Amino acid sequence: MSQSSGANNQQFGSDDLTEKTSIVTGETFNGLMRPADEAPPALVVLLGPQGYVGKQYALVQAEYVLGRSVDCGIHLDDKSVSRNHARLVIVGSEVTVVDLGSANKTVVNGNVLNPMAPMKLKNNDQIKIGNLILKFLEKGNLEAITNREMNEKAVKDGLTGAYTKGALIERGPELIKRSEVLNEELSLIVLDIDHFKKINDQYGHAAGDVVLKQLSDVISTKVVRSQDFFARYGGEEFVILLAHTPLRAAAEVSERIRATVESTAFMSEGKRIPVTVSVGVATRKSDEDVWDTFFKRADTALYQSKQNGRNRVTISQ
Asked: Annotated catalytic sites, by residue?
């Protein structure tokens, strides 16, 4: 383990697939329609393995390959799915699907597609990819907005807006596998608010909630990149997964987090609350293919930071 502290660091499915409708009127309807007009076409998983049902994929690029390969634009990790199973092509508001010679075929509304023969999708078409069933929603579909909001509520922490522990546990192994197969560097930061119980005891639990929310806002806006995965692991502990990031860069990000939190004015009811964090950081080793093992190394480094005085970064070698 190597360490840094504030004092000496330089900054660096369901079988029932029927549709459900609801009726809205007046201003509520108009308010819903405005964002729906801008909603891109999407795929929603109706039936599939654990962790996939309800997932929505917004189709914002010109082309996607659906398959089991980790470098597919829409990665469906199920043995019934071919490595490169099917392709979606998006031109304007028109979306076509093409089977790429998959072993278990691509089926649209019960009709098996001939390999390499494109088929234009219509709103609410059901696409069977291996054992998964997905529904196509055309551009501007109100259901896409509703599904997205429901999905965000399911995977985002209500207080901080960070991803939940459940979302992290699902995402972590996916990134481990991608890192292993594509030989991409993957780093993990685990951080914990120092003496958080004392903050709650001295300033009250409402102030503690303010600290948690503000900490999340600070990290989300000043540190985390769009490709990073930021989650609240539980209580006052947070986790950041950094794809394509070597250990040195992850250590620099960790120190930036530590220094930024220490210098931020956390305020509640006109009172400034001093806040610092302890941080552990690890980068996946070439033979490390289990999420729990990877996470434990970073969490152990965090524990070392707390044991050695807090408000510091410890790097797992």
From this structure: 236
